[in-house]
Amino acid sequence: MKTYLAKTGEIERRFLLFDAANQPLGRLAVKIVNALRGKDLPTFTPHVDTGAIVIVINAEKVLLTGNKETGKKYIRWTGYRSGQRVETAQEMRAKHADRLIREAVWGMIPHGRLGRAQYAKLKVYAGAEHPHAAQNPELVK
Length: 141
Prior knowledge:
Layout: E1 15-19, H1 25-37, E2 53-57, H2 68-71, E3 73-77, E4 84-88, H3 89-95, H4 98-108, H5 113-119, E5 122-124, E6 138-140
Parallel strand pairs: 1-2, 1-6, 2-5
Antiparallel strand pairs: 3-4
Helix pairs in contact: 1-4
């Protein structure tokens, strides 16, 4: 029995819609990463981008359990001396609600050329509105 390896030209992209309202952040991020990489398909090939285009709505309503709302820190560096910036999850949700999901997904995806291509297929919106209605995305429960 031969192993099937997907080819780039054979891939049909799906549009998947995830509703982040009242979903735990980590569990939602795992489902998103599996859909982006194509691990939920029987044709998954590790070195080919076989995943779907993922749309996430209601990112501002994602659930953080325990005391992560005030205790979880997001650290970034501007590139300048004394340029380290620290934000809590609560501050990040107030300013950029979509970054909570983006940071969680980026941490779970492979960091390389293929991972960056897969991450580019992620579209996150803070509210319930999104501009991808013409693609008829299928809602993932």
